[in-house]
Design brief:
304 residues; alpha+beta; 5-stranded mixed beta sheet; 11 helices; 13% strand; disordered C terminus
């Protein structure tokens, strides 16, 4: 049997009409009756910008945000994912293209000569192209690119004389996602002129890359919400609030907002602070928001 904070809350969730309030002297009312059990509610049509504001400055409103429609939650997830994608991918890529005067100028005038002959790539000198959170590193002095030639970008395509690697870097740890022979990725005779002819395809690839970053960002933080929910659900059950696991899952996503922004702003500005420390601060803030959200209701009811 579920108990509730007060009679008003019970009637709201069970569909009964609330009784008229008695006019009493506030000084004669118990202290807890000065606070509404529904303080967490937010308007049903709250837009993504207001959801963002409430997620940052009003922990007590996270319960109300979690009770918005699934459609509004999905729009918020996509909005936050798009914001991160713009910071980490769109702005740096656009800046790079403007800096080099477009792909044509980059390929024709900014890159050294290179060619693929007999399945071996040879470049006149090593070079790196930065595209936001992604680096393309070409160094044909060895079969694979040496680790000391790699940067700390989240994703690096390392192209050596014989091998191509896609490397994911997170918190200083590198993981090879894909590895293959150069001839598996590029045709025989591949050179700068080939790149110039393939410019339209590169723009399509850049667009698809942005969609990949968006999808990766959304999935990563949704999985994070699932992990936080394992703790938050145990806390939610000790309150008198009528919340489902779906509500708590969405609440945990909203609670991550500050941590998400901190981690990605740090990354977008060059990672001046160690990523591990920023991530730990984000985790602390998220859990603090979860506890602050439920704390006012912990004394008022629990499952029996």
């Amino acid at each position: 049997m579920k108990s509730y904070y007060n009679e008003e809350e019970r009637k709201k969730y069970e569909g009964e009409d609330p009784e008229p309030k008695n006019d009493r002297d506030p000084e004669e009312e118990p202290e807890h009756e000065h606070r509404s059990s529904l303080d967490f509610e937010v308007p049903e049509r709250t837009n993504v910008f207001e959801q963002l504001r409430l997620s940052i400055v009003c922990p007590k409103k996270l319960i109300g945000l979690s009770q918005l429609t699934v459609g509004r939650f999905v729009r918020y997830v996509l909005f936050l994912g798009t914001l991160i994608t713009v910071m980490l991918y769109v702005v740096p890529v656009a800046t790079t293209l403007i800096h080099f005067g477009g792909l044509r100028n980059l390929f024709e005038n900014q890159m050294p000569e290179f060619s693929l002959q007999n399945s071996i790539l040879k470049a006149d000198e090593p070079f790196t192209i930065n595209l936001g959170t992604c680096d393309i590193v070409v160094d044909t002095s060895g079969a694979t690119v040496a680790s000391d030639s790699l940067g700390n970008r989240e994703l690096t395509f390392a192209i050596g004389s014989r091998k191509v690697q896609a490397i994911l870097t997170q918190n200083g740890l590198r993981t090879v996602l894909v590895e293959g022979r150069v001839s598996d990725f590029f045709p025989e005779g591949f050179n700068r002129e080939t790149l110039v002819e393939a410019i339209p395809g590169f723009y399509i690839a850049l667009f698809l890359g942005g969609l990949f970053v968006l999808a990766f960002t959304v999935v990563k933080y949704l999985l994070g919400s699932l992990l936080y929910m394992l703790i938050a659900w145990a806390i939610a059950k000790r309150t008198g609030l009528d919340l489902t696991k779906g509500n708590v899952f969405r609440l945990c996503f909203y609670a991550q907002t500050i941590g998400i922004l901190l981690v990605n702003i740090n990354s977008a500005t060059g990672g001046y602070l160690p990523g591990t420390i920023v991530s730990m601060v984000g985790i602390f803030i998220t859990m603090n928001f979860v506890f602050k959200t439920f704390k006012p209701y912990m004394r008022f009811g629990q499952d029996e």
